[in-house]
Structures are given as structure tokens and as C-alpha cells.
Amino acid sequence: MDAVTKQAAAAIAGAGNSVAADDDNLAVFTLPILGMTCASCVQRVERALSAVPGVLAATVNLATEKAAVRAEATVTPGMLNTAIEKAGYHLATATTTLAIEGMTCASCVGRVEKALKAVPGVLDASVNLATEKAQVRTISGTPQAALVQAISKAGYKVAPAPAGGSAGAAAAPAKGLPSWWPVAVAALLTLPLAAPMLGLLIGQDWMLPGTVQLLLATPVQFWLGARFYRAGWAALRAGAGNMDLLVAMGTSAAYGLSVYLMFAHGGHGHLYFESAAVIITLVLLGKWLEARAKFQTVAAIRALESLKTTTATVRRDGVDSEVHIDSVQLGDLVLVRPGERVPVDGSIVEGSSTLDESLLTGESLPVAKTVGAQVTGGAVNADGVLLIATTAIGSQTMLSQIIRLVEDAQAVKAPIQRLVDKVSAVFVPVVLLLSAITLLAWGLVTGDWQQALLNAVAVQVIACPCALGLATPTSIMVGTGVAARYGILIKDAEALETAHRITAVAFDKTGTLTEGKPALLAIDAADATTEADLLRMAAAVQKSSNHPLARAVVDEAHKRGLQVPATTDALALPGRGVQATMAGSTLWLGNRRLMDEIGAATKLFAELAGQHERAGRTVSWMAHGNAQQPIVAGLLAFGDTIKPSARGAVLRLRAMGIESIMLTGDNRGSAAAVAELVGITNIKAEILPAEKASVVNALKAEGRRVAMIGDGINDAPALAAADVGIAMSTGTDVAMHTAGITLMRGDPALVADAIDISNKTYRKIRQNLGWAFIYNIVGIPLAAFGFLNPMIAGAAMALSSVSVVSNALLLRRWKPDTHQEGQ
To answer: Which pTM does this prediction carry?
Structure first.
């Protein structure tokens, strides 16, 4: 192990967690494992770990749910994690986000990631230059102190976490002196040095004495430019290089040459103090402009953060009192007056009003709410007084989850960034080598070592790894931020990058293309069963379910004043229906597939079911009895409403060259009726959740890029199988956790918008990377061949980063279903 890894391992060993150093060639891992239930699990995990090359011994304890692994130093936690997952289990992991100070370019990003990944217990680390944050996934129990120590050894600092932990807060300018003061002071000191060059253009000699130039240039070089020396020295100590090192070396060479010439020639002749001072001033200006532009990239998160309230009016024991938001508890009754923001998530127990949820869902029109309706913290109450029962507080509110999703998406790298990381890893050493070659070549060939040094300085100064490091993350930050503003939550950068290549979209039917609020239209009972009894049984088996059909049945039973009996052993049967036990008898409610599985005779109701299906209705079959002789008690027929935007969404996707496909567990007649109305011709009906995933995989096997759109638990396998999973926020948590993109309004028209913002963002990434690569590929040779003055090189370097960030900021003009010029 190297010194950093040994110290980190020692820190972990001292804490009694995760990983410890055994000796120079061995390491001992303590791994918390999830999912083991018996001795067979223990044996399976031990075999899987022992099979990893380099593992000497592996012992698993079922009681503590931990594995002790002794292995060679070449074995990493990631290798062990892969083996455990292949065996069907999971490591207990934690994700830590660290704000890092001192990073200036893509080379810094690579160095911090390398340092973090070398810490024992770290499974993965992703560093974002634009947000200046690192997201680290570790084995549970890995102490944060080890991560901080590794970052410190790499030459950087971990900043204190801002209140609320948001990017918006982290990006906020510090109070005190304005952020532009170093630029202003540097410009004032540099102007007299640069003025003689302007004087020469009009035939005036404004050259200052050498001593005065020295006095003006020195504070710029060593006071205002100290940041470059500090960061460059830290990089050298860590055995690497960065942009600061290039600037420090280049300007020091120009400054040192000027001092030498001044004393060697008595202050006569041309000096180069102005080159060093102008370069530092321009780089400081570029960094200030870059910081301002980066601050704007997190505008979306700051807008969401502004929706949070700090106080709430709580009604306790009939008394209304204003309390701090942290004091609100689950179940508290919160009073919201007209014009106030809703402070928590909850359900309305008294009053009615209209709420403005535009910043949460992108819906521009106020939404009417009344008793029983769910409300989201951050929405503005327009006109009525509401009393809300709190259902979520703090980090569990929808607003906090949205902010966290957007921040996570901005923290994770896009796949295209891997190429940039490879280039950045060797960028600074290659530039220093080219600078040395330029110096020697010019000096040896021409004998003019002054010009040779200036050309070498120009090579160092014009090289800019910053633009490479900022090209991708700034585009992703702005893209995910503007998408969130219009109700499109993108969970990770990979989903954003992949979505632009989509060629086929698979839609679930219920709740995706339809409203998902079916009404019970018909109840057809068998001769031995009354309509009321049939409805009572159906409500009993479904009363704990949140499925749209279940809610329709329970609502109808309540509307008719029926007493719903209690049931036990309720069980969801994905893609088929539900079952439960009532008074010793088993109840089944589901589709025809379920009836066939349990062996119930369906012939009596077959014609009636066919009529309902041909009318576009969803049919549920009710059976009761025992497993040996189930009896069909009747049918329930449901009707659903097509979403108004569904047909337009399908037509827009077709115009984009994307085929729409319907995947549904519903009957073929109902599916065909909906498909005809929305314009879909490719239908897969009466399929199980696993079969949905199989259809998605079959489409991918044909070479298509597939997006799956769904909202329920039964859609989760297909969402996971698709290249991009898109979930409706009106659906289940399982669907939203599985999907890479969540549509906050449940509007199918947002599918095309999500693909569109992906297109626009990917285009910006390519533009920025193209500019960053071309800039360096063209600029460095021009400097090496003497065509660029160091001051011009410095100006170009400063502008390169600013141009990349500014180009990314053009994405802020994006709006759904619009194609603005400049995007």
C-alpha cells in the first residue's frame, strides 16, 4: 500500500469498520451483507468471495450479517462487491457528498477521484468540477475522516457543509468583500505596465523605469497570484499537475526573466513584467466570470430551495401557533392562509382552494384542491384557508426529494466524460513536456533564449484543462435544472445522455395513456350471488390496495353504504390480480389469466366479458371458495378516460421518428380501443410484468434504443430493462425509484419534451467538448511556433472556460415543445 492508503486504512482500522491494513501485501475487509437468511446463504457468499482472485480466506457470520475477508492488496472492495452481487446479495453501502475547495481544472478532478478510490472501503467516487462536489459510495461504516484525509493528502480541502446541504447554498457568493476585488486590484496595477504597448501604436514612449515595473508587477505576481502558487505546489506535492501549476510556472518564468534582464542590463531594454501581470490578471478575470456563470447553472436548485418555508402555523389543542418548521411532527394539523406557501406535504382535512404548483410540476395553471386532496410543500395557496394533516416532513417531503434528485443527477458523471477524464489524466505532463521541447528547440535553433522562454511560457499559459473539465458537467447541470423547472426530473446523467438516442417508446396503458381513475361501470353477478355481495367481496379483497381499479371498487362500495368485511393474508399477484382470505374462504379478483391459473370455470361469463372488452372496458373476474374448487361469482367492468394529451404525445413522437408501442396486462379489446384513440398500432396485451421486460429486451435486441413509460409496480421490471425508464409521479414509489426520469405531472406529452431536452443538452456537450479540444489542439501548436504572445495566450485561456460555461447557459432558454434559436 502507498502512504495515503496506509494512513486511511489505519484510520478505518481504528474505527473498527470496513477495511484494515494487515501488512504491506495483505488487507482485511469486514463487509456488512444484506439479504442473507440461512446457512445456505452463508455458504453461497463464502464460495463467491473465495472465488475472487487474490482472496486468501473468507468467513461469513449469519448472526452479525458480516463477512471477514483476508486478501492480497490487489483486491479492491469493488471486486468483492461484484462477487457478492453475483451471488444474489448486496453490500450495505452509504453515499457521502463532500464539498471540495481548491479544484481548478479537469486534472484536479482526476486526482481527487484517484485519491478517494484508493481509500479502503470506497466502492466508487465521482467528482464534479462545476459543483465542486464529490459523491462517494462506500461500504457502510467507512469513516468520513478517511475520505477527508485522502483529499487533504491530494492537496485539497473539504469545505464545511452548507446549511441545508444544497448546491444552491454551496454556490452562493461569500459575504464580505465583493468577489471581483482581486480582479480590480490586479487590473489597476497591470494597466500602467500594459499602457506602453498601446502608446507604441500611436508613436508614444510610455515605458516605465524597470524599478517601477518591478514594484507594480510584484504584488500581482506574489499576492494576487498566490492562489496559483498554493494550488500548483499542492499538486506537485501530490505528484501531479494542474492549470494553476502551468500558470504559476509560466508567469514565474516571465517575471524571473524580467528581473534578470533588469539587473543584468541596468534596467535598460525591454522587460516582460507586463506579460506576467497581464496573464495573471486575465486568468483572475476568467475565473471570476467562470464562477459567476457556474453560480447561474444551479439557478434551478436555488429556485426550488426558495420554496421551502422556515415556519408553519400549527393547530394543537384548538390553538393556532407559529412554530419553526423543524418542530412540525407527522400528523400535526397545519393552517395555511391565502397567499402563504404550504410548509409540509399533507392531505386537506378542512377547506378548499386553488394551489399554484408551477415550480414543482411545471403546471402553469392553479390546481383546485378540496378535502381529501394531497398537497405538496412549496405550493402557494391562492384564495382559501386550508387545514392540512401532515404526512411528510423534512427530507421526506416531495420538494426535498426533488432537490435531492436534481443534485444527484448533477453530481454523477455522464458516460461521455470518461474520455475527458482519460485526456485530463495526462494533459498537464504533456503540456509541460511540449513547453520544454519548445524552449530547447527555439533556443538551440535560433540562439534567442529570451524568445524561446516566451514561447514556452505561451505554451504553458494557453493550455487549458479547465474547459475540458467544465464542458460536460455544466451542460448537464443546466439541462437537468431547466428540465426540473418544467416537471421533468432526471435522476442521473446517463439517462439524460441516453434519452437523445431513443428510437422506440413503450407505454403502459392504465395511468400512463389513460387517467388511471377508472369508474366501475357494470357489476354482473352469478345467479347464486347478489350484486351487493359481489361488490362487498371485491371491496374486501382490495381495500388495502392503492391500485386504481381497487380504489374504484372501494369507492363504489362506500357510496352504496356497504359494510366491507375484514380479510387476512392479502397477496398481490403481479400482472394477474389479488387474493385474500375472508371467513375461511379464499377470494380471487383479477384477469382471465388468474382464473385459468386457479382452474375456475369461465365459460358462463365468457360472452359477457367479450362484450365489455370490445367496448373498451377493463374486466375483473371475481372468484371464491377453495383452491380445489374455485367458483366464479361474477364480473366487474371498468371504464377509464384517455388523457387529453395522449394522442398528441404519440403523434409528436412519430414526427421525431420514434415508434410508440403499448404494453399492458389488460385485455386485448380494451387495449385495442385505447390504442386506436391515441394512434398506436403496435400493441402487446394480456402480458405479465416479466413479459413486459422481455418485450423491451426483444426491442433492444433488434438494435433499438428503448424508453419505457409506466407508473405501477408491475412496470418496474420493464422500466429497469429499458435503456431509459420514465415514470409518472402519479404512480408508485417503486416505479419512480426504478426509472431514470420522473414526469412530475403524469403528462405523456412530457415524454417528447424529456427526449428533446436530452437532445439539446447532448448537443451542448458536444459543442463544448469540440471547442475545448479544438482550442487546445490549435492553440498549443500556434504558441509553440511563436505565433502567440504570452498575453494573447493568457487571454485566450481565460476566455475558453467562460465560453464553455456561457454556451451551456444557453440551455436555460429551453421550453417544452419549443425550438429556440441558439440551442
So the answer is: 0.64
